Amino acid sequence: MGVTPMRVLAFLAALLVGMTTLVAPASAAPVSRSELINRAASWLTANNGGRVPYSQETNWTDGYRMDCSGYASMAAKLSTPGPNTVQLNTDTYTMRIEVSAMLPGDLMIDSIGDGNTRHVVIFHKWSNPGKSAYMAYEQRGGYGTSYRAMTYGLFGSDEYVPRRLKNISGW
């Protein structure tokens, strides 16, 4: 049983099938872009009509951490309490994309530093035709859930990188 071209092709086909099925951890339910954005927006009023407060130590009533990565995990339907920012920046949950390819529900992640400097925001849409800013949802220290214009990751002057969640399942 030597190596034949057919065996090589069969091996490569099996390898490709295996790679395409490794899209996200088993606990990551599929989520559409619109569902992810709606879930992110829900924390703007989830606290009796107000935003969910920020905390790195406490979980919200849905079981997710009340920090930026817990918030992004909640919106993306990842397992509770959610992976941290460093974990979200790995190929387990996301893949690197170009800024120009960003779509609603993609993430902008800074995984460098410590728990007080790392951050993740959820891209919603470009805020102007020149794409010099975008609207994003975030869970930020000292404030809680917000929706505002941002420029993180656009000009190469910070550590933010655009990433796409592997459990995104369409619009």
Automatic annotation (TrEMBL):
Residues 1-28 form the signal peptide. It comes from the Bacteria. Keywords: Signal. The keyword Signal applies. This is NlpC/P60 domain-containing protein. It comes from Lentzea tibetensis.
